[in-house]
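Annotated sample (chain length 157).
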Amino acid sequence: MDKKTLAVLALLALVVLLGVGWLNAELRLKRVSPIPEGVENWGKIFDGYEAYLDRRICPTGPTAMSGTSMAPTINDGDLVLWVEVDNMAELRAGDIIIYKHPTKNLDNIAHRIIEVGTGDMENQFKTKGDNSSEEYWVPEGNIHGLVIGVIYGAAPE
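Output written by the structure step:
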């Protein structure tokens, strides 16, 4: 065979391989569910854009924040994304946690850990809002999870 015929055959083989690959990918995509199991569609929050959230994140749903104690990091009306913490000993100063207040009847507070200590057989975490002067020691039993993200201004009205 001459070089021209060989080049044409090589090009034809490449087109066939790419076509088979494309067809295989198209058929595979149609067999798979558009939303994997364990993932929630968040299209409503993102004004029609599709976004998906693994249900291991925010097991009780994202938490809407109220107040300004964490401004400008977290503002009134922002949604906080968080995960449960398996090992509280892994939490460090600088982490933002979501917790139940240790002395007041307040829940779903998000503040930054400023100090880690130990108390009566459990870890304790001194927390403070970025925009607050109040500090609290929070026992590990009051902690819901570790904040991993914020959706600014997204709280439903």
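Annotation: The chain has two domains: 1-32, 60-151.
Annotation: The beta strands are 39-41, 52-54, 63-64, 79-83, 96-99, 109-118, 123-128, 135-139, 143-151.
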